Amino acid sequence: MTETASGPARSSRAKSAKASKGLRVERIHTTPGVHPYDEVAWESRDVVMTNWRDGSVNFEQRGVEFPDFWSVNAVNIVTSKYFRGAVGTPQREVSLKQLIDRIVKTYRQAGEDHKYFASPADAEIFEHELAYALLHQIFSFNSPVWFNVGTKQPQQVSACFILSVDDSMESILDWYKEEGMIFKGGSGAGLNLSRIRSSKELLSSGGNASGPVSFMRGADASAGTIKSGGATRRAAKMVVLDVDHPDIEDFIETKVKEEEKIRVLRDAGYDMDLGGDDITSVQYQNANNSVRVNDEFMKAVDQGGQFGLRGRMSGEVIEEVDAKALFRKIAEAAWACADPGIQYDDTINTWHTCPESGRITASNPCSEYMHLDNTSCNLASLNLMKFLKDDGKGNQSFEAERFQKVVELVITAMDISICFADFPTQKIGENTRAFRQLGIGYANLGALLMATGHAYDSEGGRALAGAITSLMTGTAYRRSAELASVVGPYDGYARNADAHKRVMKQHSDANDKAVRMDDLDTPVWAAASEAWGEVLRLGEKNGFRNSQASVLAPTGTIGLAMSCDTTGVEPDLALVKFKKLVGGGSMQIVNGTVPQALRRLGYLEEQIEAIVAHIADNGNVIDAPGLKPEHYEVFDCAMGERAISPMGHVRMMAAIQPWISGAISKTVNMPESATVEEVEEIYFEAWKLGVKALAIYRDNCKVGQPLSAKTKEKEKAEVTEKAEETIRTAVEKVVEYRPVRKRLPKGRPGITTSFTVGGAEGYMTANSYPDDGLGEVFLKMSKQGSTLAGMMDAFSIAVSVGLQYGVPLETYVSKFTNMRFEPAGMTDDPDVRMAQSIVDYIFRRLALDFLPFETRSALGIHSAEERQRHLETGSYEPSEDEVDVEGLAQSAPRAQELKAVSAPKAEETVKPAPQQAHTSAELVEMQLGIQADAPLCFSCGTKMQRAGSCYICEGCGSTSGCS
């Protein structure tokens, strides 16, 4: 804990800034005379990260030094992402000590230089406490701090940026440039385009204006060209447009139209998966879009009235639209392609601390940072599970006092960073130094709630989450007021003092009105009430050092670096997790939070053991021996048999929003079966509940995803049955599989196909089991004895043996389609008009010949006749009179011929062979027989999972757009 130099007691905080000479720093975790590094056991680790698709090594650094309690995944991510210096050179960091020292010594030096501390001894305690908290994964700064602080490169500490653009070509071109510089540094930016006049307004020359949607094309192309930080992932950006802009309908429909274009191009044989080469030809794919709605519009929606669209230059209504119809279009677009999200303008600005300096018009790409234009925010997140005190017998408490001390330490460090930070543009640097926006937040909320026996979607769960959030933000603002007495308030405070104090009162009032539920949240609420009382008292006297204190970020990479089970405000993904082992290998374990929750709920150890065993076998708690049905909800997760409802996510956001300075990065996932009406309900209820911003994602709504949950209910049941047979494991037992080869009989039916790919000719013979599908493939290319012919023979044998050992054909199809090498190009096959390679053609042809419609449709493979049917009717599905008794489409090429050779039955071919999980998301897929609707990681190939508004790779820590 830190406090003013005038005395250790809380009452001393009231002394004047003139009497205060700096902060006195109290020890939280460290011991006098002992460095935090000397209190832990260190060990040497080898970090070798491979791409599971082809086994290639993505990253390798051996002999790195970490504490023995750090997980393999955390070591891999920190070593590969955050260690600086070229691998293999003396300049490369080789120990976590070097990394932490590089950061904390920079913070200490800046704190001393800018007179934050009362004495060198206080500065040393600050350094040691900060090092301890990072070492023990109690909190983490955002990634740019780990990347940049203490290096020779610009010391950018912010991950979140908001830009601005005016109605002039000069400003628009500046926008392109500034955004590009931010992308180059590995961060993301957002802005509002509503100042740009619409296409329905005139230029001074008399011609029609282009409108903001047209300028979005140029910015989108720029973002697609500049890979963030030199990496392969896309840039992260947010584009906002006000609901009263005359071009709002065009803005809403931009991505819907492009999504249909993607479908057409995919069906023509182009690679339209996320990250595919051909996706770059489609526009508006590099940004999240959000509509900024105000209370006037939402009331018109509620009452069924008209709403005026206003000219940007005159401010007058130039067109009136039906509010409900416009709201419906927003929901339809979001249902169809997940964009646009929605931001509630009046709610956001009601909580704005600096309205005299300008309105809040936009957000960063993930929607958690919302403040003035041309500003930035640096983030840090606390690991909530580190503050749960549990004696192992069901007696639990949240350590509110220690939590406050850590918040004070972290918020002090975050403010110090602004003193030495570099910024991508001069305007952003000036405004950030003038308003000093900070974004403290947390991770592991979902794990904490489950461990304490609270359902995520419950009054008790929301009460505990709200109490912790209130305590965090109240403590942060109290520290900000104390800092103001030492180093002065932020430059913009004097102008905005009344508004800032009004918002503090709003936070405090919301805290007083909150409902207390049980023995866990009540003490936390009491501590929060005391903190807010101090905020009002000290703020009145000293002002505040920071215009903003807290946000809830996705905590993607840093959450994994802290070994968190859940990111940001998200619930747990699943009850069974994937865990990497030291020395290689992996295993599946039941969440450690499950036994904690069961003890909290009063179960005996024998009962807990039986329930955990049931979860290990089944992946869920349904029918677990001895578990009361009323306790099932405690173990509800984001995915699985008992998935949390979409409104459950919205209610959690509403429960914590009153104590977040900014907003919450979260996407509300919806099942594929969700309706447009349900999207409307979520967007409307979120406004009524006081949420600041929201986005939805309906499963399988986007084409540009390599994996999707498209399996039908009948197939789900069969796959689940197969998965349950193959995923039998104890809590700490590695899974072993022993496949058996099934050879083909001497006489076997077959089909021989001649083909041409890019001018290269070849022949393929595909032989089948008489009653059980494809069993072997032979490929003939070039002359006998040539290298190509030999490789094709070897490849054929490898595939054939795999098929006979039970590897499903769809697995080969998913792995080898879209593989790109020469020869490639046009084919002579009307069903596969373009092929990326010979292998791409072969497995597309095999899919068409041997896979049932549903399976290959999920993989995006359709015949020429099916594509024509889609153009005419909007559906690839064959009609009832085109399907035979086994479910095989008669209209598919050579369907009758395949029936003669006993084509595989749909219900058998969809069963997957035993497979290996690489992330917890894949483990859920194996257990449920579905595929999580998420992209593959560009760096290591494993499936990613959602973190806020983007995706995070559990394997290597890469993100799909958040820093």
UniProtKB/TrEMBL annotation:
This is Vitamin B12-dependent ribonucleotide reductase. Keywords: Cobalamin, Cobalt, Disulfide bond, DNA synthesis, Nucleotide-binding, Oxidoreductase. Residues 47-137 form the Ribonucleotide reductase class II vitamin B12-dependent N-terminal domain. NCBIfam families: NrdJ_Z, PRK06556.1. CDD domains: RNR_II_dimer. It catalyses: a 2'-deoxyribonucleoside 5'-diphosphate + [thioredoxin]-disulfide + H2O = a ribonucleoside 5'-diphosphate + [thioredoxin]-dithiol. Belongs to the ribonucleoside diphosphate reductase class-2 family. It comes from Streptomyces tibetensis. Its cofactor is adenosylcob(III)alamin. SUPFAM superfamilies: PFL-like glycyl radical enzymes. It is an enzyme of class 1 (oxidoreductase). The keyword Disulfide bond applies. Signal peptide: none annotated. Residues 748-848 form the TSCPD domain.
